[in-house]
Amino acid sequence: MKKLLLGVLLVASSYGFSQAQSNLSEYEAQYQKALLFYQNNDFEKARIAFSQLSNLRFNNPIVPYSYYFQALAAIKVGKYAEAEASLQNLQLRYPNWEKNEEVAYLYATIAFENKDYAKGLQIANAITSDSLKNDILDLKKNFLSDITDPKKLTSLSEQFPDEILLKERIQAKSSEMSSTKDLQQYRLNKGFLNFAFLLPVNIDELSPDHPRRANQYVFDMYQGAKLAKAQLQKEKINVNLQVYDISNDGDQMLEVLNNAYFQTTDLLVGPLYSESNKLANAFCESYQIPLINPISNNEKLLEIFDKSFLAQPSVKMQAIKAAEYVTKQAFLGRNAAIYYTSSSTDSLLAEAYKQVLVKKGYDIEAFVKVTANSEMIASKIPDKKLSHVFLATSDKKAGLAMLTALQKDLSTPLVTTAEAFQSSNLSGTTVAGREIYCIDPEFIDNENPEVDKFKKEYFAKYGSIPSYYSFCGYDMTLFWGRVLSKYGVNFKKGLDDLDTYKQSFSTSGYDYTQSQDNQVVPITTFQNYKFVLAK
After folding, report:
1. Half-sphere exposure of residue 144, counting CA atoms within 13 Å on the CB side?
2. Residue 367: enclosing H or E segment and its boundaries?
3. How far is CA 355 from CA 298, 362, 364, in A?
């Protein structure tokens, strides 16, 4: 600011005296005296002297400088209302004055002094003069460095997303915290939540010319999360969403984790790849924040780190909940035949289901790997009455093949996976008299009012039908936003509170009581040509 003022002083003095007229000599003498007060840092006397000069009804090139220096002196003594009034009078009398950008600079200064940072930034950023560029930068640095309230910093950063100084200030604020305890206290008090989505965005595929996005599910998930952010805002919960393009590159992940601003994150969604996921999990353990695995059902992700959670139930949890469901049904007998197809997940699910049934006292009459061939499957079915058949498969032809193989006993219930069928291949004739139950973690209940509401909002916002991942992004953000807003770093206490799960969701929801694994496993059955939740 000093650099600017000196320039104005020189211009004002030289211009005033080079244009002097004899009938203005008295005014100029008073102006020179007032200017001397200012140069000697006697701002109160300068303010009074320039105020008197401003009130005189002279009309000469020096008068606008009197208004200007009155405002400057008033700012120096903290009389900001007077300074603003002086500038307003200046602009009223001299609307086309050549120093109007310097006037804008003083308006910005007054706004900053009054702690109206948004107004100060708005005015300062509208000044285009190259000669004032460095002064404006110094002005903003000076006042923005005084902001210590994280809520204020974040609010301003949202209003002025291109303001680098605000981002630097937020980073500096987080860097001041020397311990995990400091960061936890910061998160507790900052009044908003930072959610980081660490997902393979694949920037190269963002081009409109790209024929197909292999990562469309990432965009769907994020779009759902944005709608959840708007809903949380209505609930007075402020969530910032940040997306980081993360692959399986450890160095890339470390670069993100070492960013000071990132260390104020309250929740991580992803990464999806093992190397970057390990590093992210270690980070979450250090800073005591949750990491959500949005699409994986691999329980090994939960073995080392207790801050890691599965949004989808693990293969083991699916087996447990399916077996629990079966034991509550009026199936005759306590025996079962278990079949699985070729994928590793199929065999894992079959083995997990077998172990649960054995613990519940069931006899396993068959445990066989099969293909989607009805004759082959029929040859492996025991020649005795079964309480039910279990088929673990990701082959959409296997379900129909199993039904065909079971033609000799239409009353035997089939428990399988949602991937076992293409619903278009199922008809009333095919399933007539059958009991079919499917493990379906991605089930969306179209009878649920929350689903209908979300579909309408999503279509209105994006002009497309939401995918499962859109629902997933929406529900994850809602659930964790509410939990972290209420419980903060003590979120595990919230996860063990049954009241946490009373909210309605568009998917089947969550249950993390005493668990990092989602214990909600939808079981569906085929009725009226569609799958519905089994009772």
Report:
1. 29
2. strand 363-369
3. 18, 10, 10
Report cis status (omega within 30 of 0) of the bond before 271: yes
Q: How is residue 411 written in tokens?
A: 């009353």
If DSSP states are collapsed to H, E and C, what string results for 216-270?
Answer: HHHHHHHHHHHHHHHHHHHCCCCEEEEEEECCCCHHHHHHHHCCCCHHHCCEEEC
Neighbours of 25 (CB within 10 A): 10
Q: Phi, psi at residue 31, to the nearest 5°? A: -60, -45
Beta bridge partners of 317: none
Q: Is the pTM of this model over 0.85?
A: no
CB 215 within 8 A of CB 233: no
Report the distance separating Cα 305 and Cα 274, nearest Å.
13
Residues 6+ apart with CB under 8 A from 110: 75, 80, 83, 84, 87
Report the alpha-carbon distance of residue 235 to residue 407 in Å, rounded.
54
- Other C-beta atoms closer than 10 Å to the C-beta of 421 total 24
- Which 3 state secondary structure label does DSSP give 396? coil
Which candidate, 165, 123, 124, 122, places its Cα nearest to that of 147? 165
Q: How far is Cα 137 from Cα 56, in angstroms, rounded to an integer?
A: 36
pLDDT of residue 20: 40
209-220 tens-digit pLDDT? 444 566 889 999
The position carrying tokens 């964790």 is 480
Structure tokens at 64: 């606008």
Residues facing residue 243 across a β-bridge: 197
> So what's the pLDDT on residue 326?
96
Nearest C-alpha neighbor of 68 from the set 95, 86, 92, 49: 86
Pair of tokens at residue 257: 């984790």
Which DSSP state fits 364? E
What token pair was written down for 313? Answer: 């139930």
CA distance 517 to 511: 8
Following DSSP, what letter does each residue of 174-212 receive, concatenated? HHT--SHHHHHHHHHHSSSEEEEEEE---GGGGSTT-S-
For tokens 């004032």, the residue is: 132
Sign of CA dihedral 164, 282, 472, 186: negative
* DSSP code of residue 434: -
Q: Is the separation of the CB atoms in 154 and 173 below 8 Å? A: no
Q: Strand, helix or coil at 478?
A: helix
Backbone angles phi, psi at 47, to 5 degrees: -60, -45
To which H or E segment does residue 533 belong?
A: strand 530-533
pLDDT in tens, 121-143: 999 999 999 999 999 999 999 99
DSSP at 313: P
